[in-house]
Design brief:
The protein has two domains: about 1-100; about 105-200, Sandwich (Immunoglobulin-like). Strands 5-4-7-9 form a four-stranded antiparallel sheet, with no helix packed on it. The protein has a three-stranded antiparallel sheet with strand order 2-3-6, with no helix packed on it. The longest helix has about 100 residues, at about 1-100. It is α+β, with helices and mostly antiparallel strands and about 200 residues long. Helices cover about 50% and strands about 25% of the residues. It has helices at about 1-100, 105-110; strands spanning about 115, 120-125, 130-135, 145-150, 155-165, 170, 185-190, 195, 195-200.
């Protein structure tokens, strides 16, 4: 009777030891899994931080690039505006230069100068459209004349150098490449005489 009880006790001891070993193993395995999960969570957190830092750096670089592009565009616009201003100034200077009558004289000198001995008339051209200027020299000397033509209301401007023989008549018009039109202002200049100004009619 004592032997079966001893066997039974031993069986229970072995089972208890086995259960204890299994429990310890399970606990150790669970602890290892927990440590692994904790490590993975830390790595995931670190990766998330790095991703946020990379996104912030990308945003900063994009902002710097946009600011640089804005500065470049602004500088290009300023340069274009400066070029346009220079072109406008040059065109205005050229217009003012061509608008000045040839052989300018001071007002006080013009007051004492004699009248230009030229009779200026205009007639319709016979074979071409436009008008012809007739310049008649009333003096005994050849006269070098600068004929200046301006068209009011437009930028059209022309200048021609002519020589009218003593007591001679010079015709200047469409045949010479310049058809006069009614309303144009014609100025004849010679440094020794007062300018003669006349409107084409």
């Amino acid at each position: 009777m004592a032997k079966p009880m001893a066997d039974s006790t031993r069986t229970w001891q072995v089972a208890t030891v086995a259960v204890a070993v299994l429990a310890v193993g399970t606990t150790a395995f669970g602890y290892l899994q927990y440590r692994r999960a904790d490590t993975l969570a830390a790595q995931l957190t670190e990766a998330g931080d790095e991703a946020r830092d990379a996104a912030a750096e990308e945003t900063r670089l994009r902002a710097q690039l946009s600011a640089a592009q804005d500065r470049t565009n602004s500088q290009a616009e300023k340069l274009l505006a400066a070029e346009r201003q220079v072109e406008t100034s040059q065109a205005h200077a050229a217009t003012m230069a061509t608008a000045q009558p040839a052989g300018p004289v001071r007002p006080d000198a013009a007051a004492v100068q004699r009248e230009l001995p030229i009779r200026l008339t205009f007639h319709d051209a016979i074979f071409r459209s436009g008008k012809v200027a007739i310049l008649q020299n009333l003096s005994d000397n050849d006269l070098e004349i600068v004929l200046d033509v301006q068209t009011p209301g437009t930028a059209a401007h022309a200048r021609h150098r002519l020589t009218v023989n003593a007591r001679g008549v010079l015709r200047f018009g469409p045949a010479q490449g310049w058809p006069f039109a009614a309303g144009q202002v014609v100025t004849l200049n010679n440094g020794s005489y007062r300018p003669l100004v006349q409107t084409v009619s």
